[in-house]
Amino acid sequence: MVDLAESGAVLAGHGRHGPGSGSGNNGKKTSKKSRTRRGKRGRRRRNKKNNRNNKTPPPYLPPEVANLKLVNPTQYRFEHLATQLKWRLQEGRGEAVYQIGVEDNGLLVGLTEADMKASLKTLKRMAEKVGADITLLREREVDYDSDRNTRKIAEVLVRKVPDDQQFLDLRVAVLGNVDSGKSTLLGVLTQGELDNGRGRARLNLFRHLHEIQTGRTSSISFEILGFNSKGEVVNYSESRTAEEICESSSKMITFIDLAGHHKYLKTTIFGLTSYCPDFAMLVVSANTGIAGTTREHLGLAMALKVPIFIVVSKVDLCFRGTVERTVRQLERVLKQPGCNKVPMVVSNPDDAVTAAQQFAQSACITPIFTLSSVSGESLDLLKVFLNILPPLSNSKEQEELMQQLTEFQVDEIYSVPDVGTVVGGTLYSGVCREGERLVVGPTDEGRFLRLKVGSIQRNRSACRVLRAGQAATLALGNFDRSLLRKGMVMVSPKMNPTICCQFEAAIVLLFHAKTFRRGSQVTVHVGNVRQTATVECLHGKDELRTGERAVVRFRFIKHPEYLRLGAKLLFREGVTKGIGHVARLLPPSQNQDQNQIHDQNLQEH
């Protein structure tokens, strides 16, 4: 476990012992080898000296953390602090964590009991002024000076009270091997009742009869877990409908329950690429360990650069030694050169707070939870983690996306009685309102069709305005459902969207049994687009082997698609797998010219 003081001391240490802080060698040139040797000797001497003195330096935190001592501020100072808090809440999209008892330079000096109470009281007044609540995350004593009285520092979460459905929404994709307990864990979290050991908790998550009969997820389902402004869990145990959960929550976690069985892998990949999850939760069964598709799911999340945390489930079924063996197995895999992750086992609430903060700051940190959906063991630690977990994007990035033209990805299509055609998906950019006129496409002929957005629902409750990054369902009235398909986009008519049948991508071949060459057919995933494509040519190479890179031209075999330059790409066919990004789009006219040349070459041969 990394405690607050240790993490601060390490971070502050980089600034104190950076390049230029030493006293050089009086202008004499020294070989790199001797400098390295002398540097090692110097470090050893310093370590020995520290061990002899057995004194820890004053603990530090990085200066950019919000540092506070709020004892009886003047009215002017109070207004200034309240304005600062309002700005921090906007930057954090409704959330901010404050450190009380920390100086501006990051030194953990702590406050006396009386000063701490006064500071928390002032912070509560500030929060009330800007329409927020505070939650004390953790409090601890610091040894700043042994002669003084006991001093404490505190970490406080400030969260905005929800207004007009402006809650913070994070999407978490749930991955893991079949029978690892993914759906059961989600059922326990969202329903508020423990499982009976035979899968009762997961029944509400299944969408099809065969899923209930087999107990295996084959489709993508969504479940929501809310947290109010005070950090308390809001789920179906106290709220009867999703609308009530949305109204009571300041923060919403949307779980995307994906399939674990290998034959549903294309559905799992579609969920990861299309729904743009902020984080991924890999569920591993304690009694089976890393088995089946676990490694594959971990690799997919890492290839798509989705931050991942791990939950070891079913700890009630096995002895402590078995659980520890599974955790050690995970740590070995995470530390391998291909992963380069730093595993962090969460065993108490303090660990959960530290894990949430470090997980968002560093992509290499991977928290590991060990819990049971039957006994409820350590379930609260996961809730603490999810409550504090901050968004990856700040408000500035959100605003920039909202300034762009509307672009909505079509991921699901439904026919609802008395409503008509309904599409579900994610708004990639812009703002979408009720009654807005958009164009949808491309069709098989490459055209875009006009339509009008009727009503909008977000998390199963009515919503008037949809903003960039949010997922929702849009009612399209009497629009013909047969004209729609997954992978289409709904965009503003001003955008003049470009489509392509052929495109070039810079790829790396992760695995292939033989060689990857012209004429190979693979299933390409780019965002919500999933279609079989043929390899037209490999620039500068005749063939590719595992681990090699190249720029490859692909051609869709069915119909044109709408793609974005720079979009992440993942392709597969059997055991063949590769990743990359879209480097160039070939317009339809160029596509036709290339096809004519290709046909002529075939006729000549």
UniProtKB/TrEMBL annotation:
Record Gene3D superfamilies: P-loop containing nucleotide triphosphate hydrolases, Translation factors
Gene Ontology molecular-function annotations: GTP binding; GTPase activity; translation elongation factor activity
Keywords: GTP-binding, Nucleotide-binding
Biased composition regions of type Low complexity, renumbered to the chain: 590-605
Entry keyword Nuclease: no
Residue ranges, compositional bias (Basic residues): 29-52
Keyword DNA repair (UniProt): no
Family of this protein: Belongs to the TRAFAC class translation factor GTPase superfamily. Classic translation factor GTPase family. EF-Tu/EF-1A subfamily.
Name of this protein: GTP binding protein 2b
Species of provenance: Acanthochromis polyacanthus
